[in-house]
Amino acid sequence: MQRIRPALIALLLALSSVAASARADDTAAWAALRAGAHIALMRHTDAPGGAGDPPGFRLEDCATQRNLSDKGRADAAKIGARLKAEGIRIEKILSSPWCRCMETARLLQLGPVEAAPTFSNVFVLRGQTESLTAGAREVIDAWKGSGILLVVTHGANIFALTGVSPASGEIVVVRGGSREAVGRLLLD
User: Quick check: helix, strand or coil at residue 140?
Assistant: First the structure.
């Protein structure tokens, strides 16, 4: 019992530190979203089936792709409601043309959604990762709006842009120009 106690204390301290870090990420992300002029990179909500898409998928046919689960659809609606309740001013919404991203973006109910091919799935389109990521950087760097640019895309894309590997439905808030992550939000 004596040996277990120091290990338990160390574990509790580590968990406390992680929780404090997550709260700091949340606080910074909310502050940036309220300030406007930032970019919110959101990974689509829950779409079961692993990474990528089934063999032979076609972008123009949602039935051939991984799609949102019922949980994913409910989470997208909850995230949109939370952003509205917090008074976040979404000025523009861009989305990967993949069905799970477009559906997530629409279910947020925060405004019109525009498909942006440069945010296409870099996991699936490995041969185009460099050009797609360069195009995404240009879009982010060019953002001069006073509100928030919300981009719904894939985890691999967000990782390529920021080095952050987000969970389904997670939002990584970045500064335009530097693409520096200022905070993260997991709202579902």
Answer: helix
**Locus of tokens 């032979």:** 56
User: For the domain that residue 130 is a member of, what is the CATH number?
Assistant: 3.40.50.1240
Return the structure tokens found at 187. Answer: 């709202």
What residues contact 20, with CB distance under 8 A and at least 6 apart? none
Hey, what are 114's tokens? 């525009």
State the DSSP code for 148.
E
Stated pTM of the model: 0.86
- Amino acid in position 75: D
Q: Average pLDDT by consecutive 10-residue portion of the chain (188 residues)?
A: 49 36 72 95 94 87 95 98 97 97 98 97 86 94 94 95 96 88 90
Say if strands 113-115 and 171-175 run parallel, antiparallel, or are unpaired: unpaired
Bridge partners of 175?
38
d(CA 68, CA 49): 10
Range(s) of the domain holding residue 101: 4-185
Task: Report how many domains make up the chain.
Answer: 1
